[in-house]
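=== RUN LOG ===
request id: a7f3
mode: sequence -> structure
chains: 1
length: 958
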Amino acid sequence: MNKQAITGMAALATLYLGVPALRAADDKVIWLDEMNLSQAVSGWGETQAKKTVANKPLTLRGKVYERGIGTHPPGSFRIALDGRALRFKAIAGVDDEVGKQGSVEFIVMGDGKKLWSSGVLTGGGDIKPCDIDLKGLKFLDLIVDTTPDGYTLDHSDWADARIDYQGDKAPAPTSAPKLGRPHNPPPDRWPAADQVFDKNSLPDPADKDEADTVLRRVGALIAHLKTLPRCPDLKQAEQRLAGLKTEAGLLESGNAKRGELLAEACKLRRKVAFANPLLDFHRILFIKRHFCPNEEVTGNHMCDQYFGFNAIRGGGLFVLENSFSDAPTVRNVLEKSVCENGRYKGQSFTSKDGFLAPELSFDGKEVLFARTEIADNEADRKRYSGQGSENNTYKIFRVKLDGSGLTQLTDGIWNEFDSCYLPSGRIMFISERRGGYGRCHGRPVPSFTLYSMNADGSDMVMMSPHETNEWQPSVDHNGMVVYTRWDYVDRGFNQAHHAWTTTPDGRDPRAVNGNFSPNQGARPHFEISMRAIPGSQKYMGTAACHHGQAYGSIILVDPLMPDDNAMAQVKRLTPDQLFPEAEIGTHGPPANYAAPYPLSEHFFLCVYDKDSRSDAGTDNNYGIYLVDAFGNKELLYRDDGISCLDPIPVKARPVPPVLPHKTAVGKPLKPGTKFVPPDPKTIPDFGTVGLINVYDSIYPMTNLPKITALRVIQLLPKTTPFANQPFIGFGDQKSARMVLGTVPVENDGSAFFKMPADKPVYFQALDADGVAVQSMRSATYVHPGETLTCLGCHNSPTNGYSMGQNSATALRRPPSVLTPDVQGSKPFSYPILVQPVLERNCVECHKKSQAEGKKAPDLTRAQGENNRWFTSYDSLKNFAFFWNNACFDEVPDSKPGQIGARNSKLYQMLVKGHHGLKLSKEDLHRLTLWLDCNSDFYGSYEKLEEQKEGKVVCPSLE
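=== RESULT ===
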C-alpha cells in the first residue's frame, strides 16, 4: 500500500475516533447546541440543546455525548453558511432512551442537494458518523425523516454536531425560503403485478422508451373502449396506431426521430381518450385549494388539513366548461353570489377565503361546499387551545350551479365539511360538535364524526358518537353510506384508517376491509375519498397516509372479496405511485394523485402532479386529469398558481334507493313539510342489541369456558388536547372507559338487551366467573330506538342478519337490562376498584416480606413515579394485561382466551395460589375486571387528584 493511501486511512481513522483533525489557525468551530434552536422544526416535542427530545442526556450505544442536539421526525434545521463554512461533523443515531424502538433517516442537504444520508437507523442499531465538505455552500439543511413504520419513538440525536468555518461571522439558523421543486425521477420500484388492476399500467421490458409505452397503452385503451356501449368508430385510430407501431419498430432506441414519434403517440392518445362514451358530460365541478405547508401543525396531517385555521387564501368553487376540448374555460361559480341568510347574509365569497369539499346534487343542479374566513393578520389565525372560533372554522353552504341561492347551512365554533346528499333528502356531513380531541397529538386536534341534517340545516343529529375521527361520507348504489373511520380502539394510531359503511340513519357501522392489518406495510395506510363505482360493487379511493394529506395512489376496493387484512380486496390503479407511509416515507416523497371520481372501474377523474412532494406545500401544483387503468393520463386543466381538487362530472346521476329509517331521530321530512322538533319525551334514550350466536366467530372459541354473559364497556372521548396528558394507565395513548354493565348470554350463545343510545362501546364475552374470553377492538353504538343485530363475535363484516329469520333463545324474550358492575368500574377508578383489595389482602404481607429483606412489590397507595399513580400501580405493571404501543401492537388482533386477565401474570398467579392467599369472590372479580379492561388507573381525563383520593369523577363528555 502506498504512503498516500496509508496517510488517508489514518486521517479517516482519526475522524471516526472523534479526535479533531488538524485545522488552519484561523478556522473556528460552532457547535449546533450553541445555536438558537427556536428555528429548528421537530415533529414531536422541541429540539433540545445537549439533551434528547425527551430532555435526557444524549446517549448512543452506551456513550453519553456532552455536545449535540436531540430532535424528532419529521424535523429539520436550516443554517445560513454564506459560503464561509468548511465542514459539518456529527454522529447520527436513535437515542438509547427508546431501546430497540424507533427508526429514522438522517439527511444532510446543501443548497437543495442531498449531500449525505444515513440510511434507515434504528433504536439499538447502527450509528453513523458524518463528515461533509461545506465549502462554498450558502445553506445547510439537517433533516430527520420518518420511515414506513411511522414516527413513534424516533428520538433522533445529532451528537457531537459542529460546523468548522472561517471568518468573523459564525453560521446561524434561519427559516427556510421557498425552494423550487426538483422533478421527481421515474419510479425505481414497482409493486407486485398481482396487486395491479391492469398490468398495462406497469413497465414492460419490451418497451424501448416512453414512445413504446404510450403506444402499448393506447392499444389497450382502444381495445377496452370497443367493448363499451355507444363506442364510436375507432377504425381510423386503430390504423394510425398500427402505423406508429410499425414506425417505432424501425427506429432504434436513442434515434432522434423517436421524440417526434412520442409526440404523435401522445396526440393519438388524447384523441382516443376523449372518444370515450363514458364522457357524456362536458362540465366538471372542482375547487382550487393550496396544498398545506409541510408541518403537521399547519395542515400536513390527515386531520389538520381539514381545519379552517390551516386554510390558505387563493381558492374558490369553479366549473370547467368544454372540458374535453382544446380550449376549455373556467367559470367562478361564486363570482356574483351573495349569501342569502345567516351570519354572512349579504356577503360575497372570494379568493380571500378558504374552500373545501364540494359535492354535487343527484340532479346535477346544486352544490354543497365548505368555506372558512381567513383573517387578514396571520397572528389572528389561531389554532384551537381549548375553545374554537366561529371565524376560522369551515361552515357548510349550498348554492345552485349558476351561482344563485347561496345559503348558509351550519355555523358555530366547529369545523364542518365533507357534506353529501342522501337519497332521503337529508344531508350527511362531518362535524366536531360531538367534542373531544385526538389521543396521539402533541397539539390540539379536535375529533370529528358523522352528522346529518335536513336540507335547510335544521335538525342536526349525531350519526356517529365514535371517539376518534371520520371522513368523507358518500352514498353507494345500495343506498349505504361509505366513509373513512380511524379505528383506534386499543390499537396503534397507525394501524387502521380505512373504509366503513353505515346506513343513512347511522345504524350498524361496519369495517369494509383491513381492520386488523398486521403491519402498516401490508396494505394502504389511509383509505380516503371513497366512492362507489358506476356499474360495479367496488369502491374507488386514495391510498394516503396518516402523517400527511389525502394524496397518494388510486385504488379499487372490492368488499365482496374475502378479507385477508392485506391486499386481497385492494387493486392498484396507479402503480407508479407507491403507498405513502406504507411503502415510502412521509414529508418528502411524492403523493401524486388525489380525489378520484370514478366513471367506471377503468376510468376516473382525479388531480395529479407528477412532481409533487408532501413537504412542498403551496409549491405543489395539482391539475385535473382524465386517467385510466392502463396507465394513460390526459391533462384537462391546470392553474399554475394554485392546485385543483375534487373534480366532479356535472351531470345528473341515479338516486340510490332510500333505505327505511329505523331510529327515533333524524327522520327525513316528507315533501312539502317543515321541520318540527320532536318532543324529547317521545325519544327513547336506548336502543336494543341482538346477538345471534357468540360462538359464530372468525376465530374458533373451542376448548374455552362457556360464555355466560356480555360486558358492555363505554369508550370515553378525550377531553384534554395533548397526547398522554394525562396517562390514563399503562397503555400508551389509550381511551378512558367505564363499564356500563353486563347482560346474560343464553345456552345457544344468543343475547338480547337494551343499551344506552349514542355511547361508543365495545363488548367482551365472559365466562361463568366473569372473566373475559374474547374482546372487541372496534367501537359500535346504537341510536335512540335502533335495533342492532350481529351474527356473532368478530363475525365477517359482509354478513348481515335479520332477527325475524332466527329462533335464537334470547330473541324470544324481552330485552335484558344491563346489570351494573361493582363500584369503581363506572367510571374506572383504580383507587376505588383495586387499591382496597390490595389493602385488605396483600399490603401487610408484602410489608412484612420487605422487612425480612425479600423482594416483595410495594402495594401501598404511596405516590409513585412522577407522582402520576400509586406505587402499587407501578409495581403491578409487569403482572397486568394492557394494549400498548402507539404504532402497532405485537398482537394486532384479539384472540379468544388470549386477552385480559386470562393472559396476565397476576391472574395466573392468583388462580394457581399465591402463598396461601384466599381472595373473596368479589375481590377476585375486582382484580379480573381491572385486568380485562386494560388495567387502567384513571376513568376520566380531569380532576386527577380527586380521582387519586378515591372520589368518583364523572367524565365531562360522557
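=== NOTES ===
The chain has a mean pLDDT of 91.
The longest strand covers residues 85-94.
=== END ===
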